[in-house]
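From the pipeline queue, job 12 of 40. The input is one protein chain; the requested action is below.

Action: predict structure.
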Amino acid sequence: MLFEVAGERPGADLMEAPRTVPLPPALAGITVTALAEAMQVRAASEPPDRLRDVITTYAQTLSGLGQITAGAARKQAGNPAQILFPPALLRRAARYISGAADLAASGGRLPNGIPETARSQLAATLRRDADGLIAITGTG
């Protein structure tokens, strides 16, 4: 776990970090979706006094992903095949998504509207998305 967090460059301005990991726009969208789903899973399991911190933490990462994607769309209008992201930002997103997969798999509360019958599929999908991000950042 310490290695994972160190790879996220704690305290660094990730918007200014080198962007060396290319993602196709569709994969960037999947990452944003997975992170938003992870935030819902995590928020459903948090006590009310910690909910604000959880939402802020996830929202900052979502915002970073969105800002980079929007900036790339302007700069790469003629070549939208890939968007470059800081590996540390993607690793952080992967850790958050992985944590939500663990919560869902271990019986954490599910967000409103998600039936119990979907628990294992939700956990597996989040795990797949987190593992994919970790694999991609290993090459960037």
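Job complete. The longest helix spans residues 48-75.
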